């Protein structure tokens, strides 16, 4: 089931990440890459966050942004733009804006994840998981708007 979700998502994402006025290259090898500008990359980021939430025994908590560290700020700034991106995408009939946005969020979160210890048992663990949860909500919604499934495990 997951393989089908990723395969179908890869093809859809490849079509929608490009501006509709541009030519599209069809390369199955490139589409299925888990790094770079692909649907599987965004799906994998969502699955990674889902795994963190499960392993961390997530309990939603208010977030104090200054406790998250400097690598969280680019993610926070992107998340703040999401409603604007969706509105612009709708008004301009351009789903590539949502696809590109989901790539930016995925890259920014993965950079945060690489520099932050999320599952460390400390007073900030649930707050960091709440932050990851907020990213997961946006990624899942963005994928859904593109007609792509967001598998919890990959």
Give an overview in words.
With 154 residues, the protein is mostly helical. It has a single domain, classed as Isoleucyl-tRNA Synthetase, Domain 1 (Orthogonal Bundle), CATH 1.10.730. Helices cover 63% and strands 0% of the residues. 32% of the residues are buried.
Please outline the helices and strands:
Blueprint: H1 2-16, H2 28-31, H3 39-55, H4 72-91, H5 96-115, H6 125-145
Helix pairs in contact: 3-5, 3-6, 4-5, 4-6, 5-6
State Rg: 16 Å
CATH fold-level topology: Isoleucyl-tRNA Synthetase, Domain 1
Uncertain spans, ≥5 residues at pLDDT below 50?
A: none
**Number of discrete helical segments:** 6
Q: Would you identify the CATH architecture? A: Orthogonal Bundle
Helix/strand-derived class?
mainly alpha
State the helicity in percent bands. Answer: 55-70%
**What is the makeup of the main sheet?**
none
Oligomer: single chain
The shape is globular
Mean pLDDT: 88
CATH class: Mainly Alpha
Question: In sequence order, what are the helices and strands, one letter per element?
Answer: HHHHHH
- Overall domain count: 1
Range of strand content: under 5%
Measure the end-to-end span: 10 Å
CATH superfamily: Isoleucyl-tRNA Synthetase, Domain 1
Task: Please provide the count of β strands.
Answer: 0
Tell me briefly what this model is.
The protein is an all-alpha fold and 154 residues long. The chain has helices at 2-16, 28-31, 39-55, 72-91, 96-115, 125-145.
């Amino acid at each position: 089931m997951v393989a089908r979700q990723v395969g179908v998502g890869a093809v859809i994402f490849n079509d929608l990440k490009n501006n509709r006025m541009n030519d599209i290259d069809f390369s199955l090898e490139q589409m299925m890459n888990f790094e770079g500008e692909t649907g599987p990359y965004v799906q994998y980021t969502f699955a990674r966050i889902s795994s963190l939430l499960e392993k961390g025994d997530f309990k939603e908590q208010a977030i104090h942004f200054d406790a998250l560290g400097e690598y969280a700020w680019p993610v926070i700034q992107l998340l703040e733009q999401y409603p604007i991106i969706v509105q612009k995408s709708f008004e301009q009939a351009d789903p590539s804006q949502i696809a590109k946005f989901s790539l930016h969020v995925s890259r920014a979160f993965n950079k945060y994840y690489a520099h932050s210890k999320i599952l460390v048992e400390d007073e900030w663990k649930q707050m960091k998981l709440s932050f990851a949860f907020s990213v997961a909500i946006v990624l899942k919604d963005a994928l859904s708007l593109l007609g792509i499934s967001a598998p919890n495990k990959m």
